[in-house]
Design goal:
6 strands; elongated; alpha+beta; 7 helices; 2 domains; 16% strand; 248 residues
Length: 248
């Protein structure tokens, strides 16, 4: 392992996180003198497919010298009877135990994860702009990642963090009943529902920013007070134990 890929794997290992990652067929591994690379025999397994019959695929372990905490596998990409002639993936993982018949199915989840992130990136506008200088790209990524984090903190998984807090749950239920009266509110528990509802929550502040220049020209004190009161209410919204501070 070397370069950026080695840094990423090192960070995952320090955090004690399990991983399955793709590597190139010419991925290099340092071996002590006298040790060799061993290709174990192919093992057949059935790959479940959504809406289609399972496919017969093959997997084998590649051992560099002596087997260590990080292991390497070669997996056929599609249904085949001859794995030696089939297109293959090369992966490495630190999953423990006898995983040869399950690591292929686990790695196939990558397609669904990528599909989910593609939908998220589209919703957040990841592809809406094409920036060429690195500083602008970094700034845009920071905006997108910040929005992604804020929405994820309000998703169902993070709400469970306050499951044992009776006072929090009572307040959350009262807030949910009140805010959910908005005609565009979504009752779902998925990430997209959280995105929709947070967009509704920040609308008053956004609209205030748009209309405030006109109120300098035509002062309407009651309208200004009404906007401020609505923004204060939105700032009290809580859908997770972490309360977002949207407007000071």
């Amino acid at each position: 392992m070397y370069g950026e890929s080695g840094d990423v794997i090192g960070a995952l290992s320090q955090l004690k996180l399990h991983f399955i990652v793709a590597i190139r067929s010419n991925h290099g591994v340092w071996l002590p003198p006298g040790q060799k690379v061993r290709y174990n025999r192919w093992r057949a397994y059935d790959q479940p497919l959504s809406g289609h019959p399972a496919e017969r695929r093959y997997i084998r372990e590649i051992v560099f010298g002596q087997r260590g905490a990080i292991r390497y596998y070669q997996i056929t990409k599609g249904s085949t009877q001859d794995p030696e002639r089939a297109d293959t993936w090369f992966i490495m993982t630190n999953l423990p135990g006898n995983i040869i018949l399950q690591v292929g199915n686990l790695y196939s989840l990558r397609n669904w994860i990528e599909y989910g992130f593609k939908q998220i990136k589209n919703e957040l506008g990841w592809a809406d702009f094409r920036l060429t200088d690195y500083q602008s790209i970094e700034r845009w990524w920071e905006i997108v990642f910040s929005a992604y984090l804020m929405i994820s903190l309000h998703a169902q998984a993070f709400k469970q963090a306050g499951a044992d807090n009776t006072e929090f749950n009572s307040q959350l239920m009262r807030d949910s009943l009140e805010f959910s009266q908005h005609p565009w509110w979504e009752e779902g528990t998925n990430w997209k529902s959280a995105l929709n509802n947070l967009r509704l929550i920040i609308q008053p502040y956004i609209f205030w920013c748009l209309i405030e220049p006109w109120l300098r020209v035509f002062p309407i004190p009651g309208l200004k007070r009404g906007f401020f009161r609505l923004i204060v209410i939105m700032n009290d919204f809580r859908a997770s134990p972490i309360k977002p501070a949207m407007v000071s």
